[in-house]
């Protein structure tokens, strides 16, 4: 039979064992709790890092790409009733007759083009060659200043939209004249038609201001820009090539420049002059030697961002 001393010794041993077991459990709990904290902190840090990375990727994407809107524009000019203008005189009636003939020409020769789809690059260049019956006019288009307009022009060129068309307008500088351009890009040859959609204005911000106090900007020789009506965001497929410094409101999107070789061809075209400078003449501002665009080729695209 155990003595009291032995029983007390056994009791103390059991107590020590219980205390050691309790200490081990508490240590294990602390280790487990610490591990949970580490996991939670790692998760929080991971989420923060992931969010930062996503924000950086989104910022980089926005810096390199944008969504361009190309609203449908299927409106076509309608004929004017000459009877409403009988009292305006023969010159007005002649102008109405010419306009109505142009409306008929649009119905016969209008082309529809497909607008670009998806996001468009904000940077990069496109080398484009306009092959005409007078020679080649190479262009260098810069997306940085006009990404939506350049994307549209390149897309139309790749569709063959400009092939077998004529440049319909040539303005010849005279005393006091402010506009020296060759205008092209309308398959109907009337200057009244487009691809069936419109493009937002991307006006230039770095043009010199005219020194005559008119508030106009100088579109320098060698500029390629989009033509439009007086309404905002009304550009389509028509473009103009500037062969002498020209004064215009800074509303016309600049797409790029004409090469020196192209300017020589352009000079040859403009040296021939126009059929008429009389606004009442059906041949008003038409090149004396017809300028036929045989094809427009995109030869290279460089510096485009990667998606």
TrEMBL record:
Polar residues composition bias: residue spans: 276-288
One matching Pfam family: Pro_isomerase
Residues passing through the membrane, by range: 31-50
Record carries keyword Iron-sulfur: no
Main function: PPIases accelerate the folding of proteins. It catalyzes the cis-trans isomerization of proline imidic peptide bonds in oligopeptides.
Entry keywords, A to Z: Isomerase, Membrane, Transmembrane, Transmembrane helix
Sequence ranges assigned to domain PPIase cyclophilin-type in this UniProt record: 132-298
GO molecular function: peptidyl-prolyl cis-trans isomerase activity
Enzyme kind, highest EC tier: isomerase
Region annotation Disordered: where it falls in the sequence: 106-135, 273-292
Protein's name according to its UniProt entry: Peptidylprolyl isomerase
EC numbers on record: 5.2.1.8
């Amino acid at each position: 039979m155990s003595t009291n001393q032995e029983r007390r010794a056994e009791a103390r041993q059991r107590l020590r064992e219980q205390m050691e077991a309790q200490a081990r459990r508490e240590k294990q709990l602390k280790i487990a709790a610490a591990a949970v904290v580490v996991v939670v902190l790692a998760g929080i840090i991971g989420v923060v890092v992931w969010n930062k990375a996503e924000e950086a990727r989104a910022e980089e994407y926005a810096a390199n790409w944008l969504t361009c809107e190309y609203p449908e524009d299927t409106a076509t000019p309608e004929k004017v009733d000459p009877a409403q203008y009988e009292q305006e005189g023969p010159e007005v009636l002649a102008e109405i007759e010419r306009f109505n003939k142009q409306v008929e020409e649009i119905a016969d020769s209008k082309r529809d083009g497909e607008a670009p789809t998806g996001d468009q690059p904000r940077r990069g260049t496109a080398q484009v060659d306009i092959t005409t019956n007078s020679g080649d006019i190479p262009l260098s288009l810069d997306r940085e200043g006009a990404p939506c307009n350049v994307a549209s022009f390149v897309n139309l060129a790749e569709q063959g939209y400009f092939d077998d068309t004529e440049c319909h307008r040539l303005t010849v500088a005279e005393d006091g004249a402010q506009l020296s351009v060759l205008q092209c890009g309308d398959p109907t040859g009337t200057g009244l038609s487009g691809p069936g959609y419109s493009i937002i204005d991307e006006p230039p911000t770095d043009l010199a201001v005219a020194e005559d106090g008119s508030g106009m900007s100088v579109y320098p020789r060698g500029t390629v820009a989009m033509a439009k009506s007086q309404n905002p965001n009304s550009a389509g497929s028509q473009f103009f090539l500037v062969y002498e410094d020209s004064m215009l409101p800074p509303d016309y999107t600049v797409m790029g420049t004409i090469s020196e070789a192209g300017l020589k061809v352009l000079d040859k075209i403009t040296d021939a002059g126009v059929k008429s400078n009389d606004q009442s003449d059906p041949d008003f501002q038409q090149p004396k030697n017809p300028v036929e665009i045989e094809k427009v080729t995109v030869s290279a695209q460089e510096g485009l961002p990667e998606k």
